[in-house]
Design a protein that fits this description.
With about 400 residues, the protein is α/β, with parallel strands linked by helices. It folds into three domains: about 5-75; about 115-325, Rossmann fold, CATH 3.40.50; about 355-409, Winged helix-like DNA-binding domain superfamily/Winged helix DNA-binding domain (Arc Repressor Mutant, subunit A). Helix content is about 45%, strand content about 10%. The chain contains 17 helices and twelve strands. A nine-stranded mixed sheet has the order 1-2-6-5-4-3-7-8-9, sandwiched between helices. Strands 10-12-11 form a three-stranded antiparallel sheet. Strand 8, helix 12 and strand 9 form a beta-alpha-beta unit. Helix 1 (about 5-15) packs across helix 6 and helix 7 runs antiparallel to helix 14 (about 300-325). The longest helix has 27 residues, at about 300-325. The radius of gyration is 21 Å and the shape is globular. It starts with a helix and ends with a strand. The model is unreliable at about 325-345 (pLDDT under 50).
């Protein structure tokens, strides 16, 4: 740990994750040290809101030191944009992570296709089988698999990769010392033992919330060459990940689902709107054969997919049936709440000097809560820009967030 890393951790604590404010700071100052040494007058000159300026004017590094010490325990590591091992794909994000906390070893993001596999946490057996088998097929030919480390499709993608002896990265929506979700504790250990990695832009002790899920999604798409969606209802965080991938110039894939199932409405809609249909890992690999010099063995991938089908039917389904009998006796993990506390405190007015995008999105809002997808249609802004502006408006105290990822003035 060095002084420069402490400056980055300090900056992240002051401005948060995934905000448009990061780009202003990057453009105005050439180094972490300059950002740390700037004055309130300097911050005001580039249009930062008072709340952020106040946080930046607190120059104490005690909290940064504490985060660093906790992150480095037990073989953990941290990277900043100044680190030589900082993932190159993150440098091209609209709001790159200022600090990346990790455990394990990151794969190469340039040699072979890195595929993100995402979907609903409440997926069906079909969704688990599809996600796991596609991941197994891709992993069998050397493709790293990225997912979110959550239940459902995420877990199936990680498990399919491990089944095939591949490398997978879980992008967590909480601090790496937080056991969320608790049932995936063994999975996280298996990922590390297999040579993969756990990463997060959230410092130790940060709990998962609906907001951290949303902000985390840009990192999954950011690391991936393409994102494959398996079983996504409408609305869905997985659809946000797919749109972020499209905004970032990445490929978007989707697995077709039953037209009668609400779990597949979002993923089927992606196919209707031009996503690449995936029936086997070969449908993904063929998109990268030219780029990779025709070294991707599609037949081997399909063979691994078929092997996973047999494994799933003989092992996973019977184990699930046995476990379900014990569920009544097991205390379930409490569901992640999306409720917010609404107070009588008045909202702040829109500050003077905010960006044109901020003004446009704020103007589209009213006292009636609307979704990010609605704002996408109403303003023409990208989802990445919308979530960045919404975060900024929340920091200003101009809007409220509501259950179901809706927002109002």
């Amino acid at each position: 740990m060095n002084q420069n890393e402490l400056y980055w951790i300090w900056l992240q604590a002051a401005v948060g994750q995934g905000t448009a404010i990061v780009s202003r700071l990057f453009n105005a100052f050439s180094s972490a040290e300059e950002r740390y040494g700037a004055t309130d007058e300097d911050y005001a000159y580039i249009g930062l809101p008072k709340r952020i300026r106040d946080a930046l004017c607190d120059k104490s590094l005690k909290r940064a030191q504490k985060h660093a010490e906790r992150a480095l325990r037990g073989g953990g590591w941290l990277l900043t944009p100044d680190s030589p091992d900082y993932p190159e794909p993150f440098r091209h994000l609209y709001s790159p992570p200022l600090v990346l906390y990790g455990k394990g070893k990151l794969p190469s993001f340039e040699r072979l296709p890195v595929i993100g596999i995402v979907g609903t946490r409440e997926c069906s057996d079909y969704g688990k089988k599809a996600a796991g088998s596609i991941a197994a097929g891709l992993a069998a030919v050397g493709c790293p698999i990225i997912s979110g480390g959550a239940r459902g499709v995420d877990r199936a993608a990680h498990e399919g990769t491990l089944y095939a002896g591949g490398i997978t990265v879980a992008v967590q929506s909480c601090g790496l010392d937080v056991e969320y979700p608790a049932p995936n504790r063994r999975l996280r250990r298996d990922i590390l033992e297999a040579g993969g990695a756990l990463i997060s832009e959230y410092p130790p002790g940060t709990l998962t919330t609906p907001a951290t899920f949303q902000v985390r999604n840009r990192l999954i798409s950011g690391l991936s060459w393409g994102v494959c969606v398996v079983e996504a209802p409408q609305p869905s965080g997985s659809l946000i990940t797919a749109r972020l991938a499209r905004d970032q110039g990445k490929d978007v894939f989707a697995v077709p689902g039953e037209i009668t199932s609400p779990l597949s409405r979002g993923s089927n809609a992606l196919l209707r709107d031009g996503a690449i249909m995936v029936l086997s890992p070969a449908d993904i690999l063929c998109e990268y054969q030219t780029r990779c010099g025709n070294i991707l063995n599609e037949e081997e991938a399909i063979k691994a997919q078929q092997a996973y089908y047999d494994y799933f039917d003989k092992v996973v389904v019977p184990v699930k049936a046995t476990s379900s009998k014990k569920e009544k006796a097991v205390k379930k993990e409490p569901a992640l709440t999306t409720d917010v506390v609404v107070t009588d405190q008045p909202l702040a007015a829109l500050p003077v000097g905010v960006s044109e995008a901020c003004q446009r999105i704020y103007a589209a809002l009213s006292e009636t809560p609307v979704s990010a997808e609605w704002l996408f249609e109403a303003t023409g802004a990208s989802l990445g820009e919308i979530f960045s502006v919404l975060t900024e408006l929340e920091i200003y105290g101009c809007i409220r967030s509501h259950p179901g990822q809706h927002y109002s003035r």
